[in-house]
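re: ur question from yesterday

yeah so i grabbed the chain u mentioned. its 453 aa long if i counted rite. heres the sequnce exactly as i have it in my notes:
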Amino acid sequence: MGEVVFLFSIVFYTEESIELLNKIFHLQDAHTTVKRELIAALTTFVSLSYILFVNPNILNAAGIPKGAAFTVTAVATAVGCFLMGLIANYPIALAPTLGSGAFFAYNVCVGMKISWETALAAVLVASVLFILITIFKLREIVVDAIPQDMKYAISAGIGLFIAFIGLKNGQIIVNSDSTLVALGKFSNPAVWITLFGLVLTVVLMALNVPGSIFIGMIVTAIFGMIIGQISLPHGIISGAPSIAPTFGQAVFHIKDINTAQLWMVVLTFLLVTFFDTAGTLIGMTEQAGMVDKNGKIPRIGRAFLADSTAMVEGAVFGTAPLGTSVESSAGIAMGGRTGLTAIFVGIFFLISMIFSPLLQVIPTTVTAPALIIVGVLMASNLKKIDWDKFEIAVPAFLTVVGMPLTYSISDGLALGLIAYPITMIASKRYKEVTPMMYILFVVFIIFFLVTNL
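ran it thru and got these structure tokens back, copy pasting raw so excuse formatting
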């Protein structure tokens, strides 16, 4: 880490550059320095770098070539970080989210048998709508209308869904005709690779080792090579794979969004990304101490504009929706307080594009532990739900268990948001239900009717 800080200091540590950076990012007002922001960025990057290997594996399940997905992940993340840093001045990275990626690949493309090109078009349309509702501040209105307990439940449910996918990809959980799911066979080498990676990553996380997930993936890949289950890479550094297979496909296939089912996919992308990123953004700003005494988040509108714009560029490049990265918390813990942290993270992701040959040694069994660990981190929101109130517990529970058990983020979301007004009315707390919640109640009933009849 020291060498990296030194190399960057050559460029950024002149008196003129420091003055310029302070003017742009208000470093002094945030009580931070260029060096602190750089170290925070490197910490965030190391913590988030697993997305370079996990996201291509998820997108590949939808049919997108792994090489193109790798480059797109790096470029889209870099641009997203630049947008967040420059527009909102937040120390938060934007990257493809595992929840939205899982919905894109496993629900839309595999489950609904929709081509990945058309699915990208749906993401693009949802992204444009995202920008519109951000400009007209509808996004802030909806965020304020959703009860905090339901926000926690949505985040935790997505975490359980991601962990379930990790257990499945690592073959720890397998299909069973009699019990739906069952424990995988320990005679399967893939199971041992996953278990090795999971135990190692858990130990590293418990020891608070920076970049635990990334280190766990690398060591697990080496373990797989040692036992002969993973092939050796043909190289380590090469030119970045072309993004030609994916670039612009979302634009070319917008005309395919012409059925009720696809418009419901658009709406679901909008809602899933909406709640996923909003909840994470709230959590990160609270950790950074940016929330004022009235609970208001400064420049929240700009942050929303940054991540909605990032969704558009991500769709055009060819990836599932980008959103606020929970791994940003690692950099914030290291002192990151301004958008300069996000800018540095973006630069690191651009540099990382030369490591594409490592893709062949990072199969799903290696990335599975990362999915499980991220699921654990997101599930921590369960403790914040008011389980003592039955009218809150029921919709929260349906949201949390609905996502992994239906193998659908949108279905779990719908179950909870439909149940919430019902339980609140039954408990005579209907006056606490906002008009927006009743609107979402109707929207999701229509959603179920369209997709399941």
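noticed a couple things. The longest strand covers residues 173-176. also The mean pLDDT is 85.
anyway ttyl
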